[in-house]
Amino acid sequence: MALPWVIACAMLAYAFIAGGFFVTVMLFAMIYAVFVIGLNVFMGFTGQVSFGHNAFAALSGYASAVLTATYSWEPIAAFAMGLGLALLVALVIGWPTLRLKGHYLAMATLAIGLIVYEIAIQWQSVTQGYMGISGISPLGIAATRSSPIAVSSLHSSLS
Question: Which of 64, 45, 58, 67 is nearest to 89 (CA)?
Answer without folding.
Answer: 58
